[in-house]
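FAQ: What does the model actually see?

It sees only this:
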Amino acid sequence: MEFKIKINNWQLKDTKGGIFNFYNWQKEDWVIITFIRGKWCGLCRKHLMQINENLDKIKAKPLAISNDDKMGAAVLKSFLLLKFPVLPDSEFNITELLGVKTEIKDDKKMSLPALFLINPKHEIVWAYKGENFDDYLDVKEIIKKVAKVKI
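And it is asked to produce this:
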């Protein structure tokens, strides 16, 4: 889905207890944000590893937002040797802001698989929201979509 929606700056605590400020981190770069359920999710880990292995081809700075707590997000980044930030969003602040929070049985909340491409003007110009919990977009499709939108 292609469109342009300006997003306001937002902040989350990072895995070291500091404050991650999105606009300060983004600078003048294109960014691809991916939402994952957590360190326990095998499909999520596979998705993040594919992004990590294709950083030079994606042509946008990746940022992962996990439903984990601070420790879980830090373990995930370290275990997978990720070269991009993984931010914890266990309170669903950004997950809710971008409309990818869902509820499953017993009032358990988590994010659906989702991607947002954000241009240097802080506008979402493309989004992908999975329809179910295993609906991650293949990295080859991500590469194609980013290249097409950036033209």
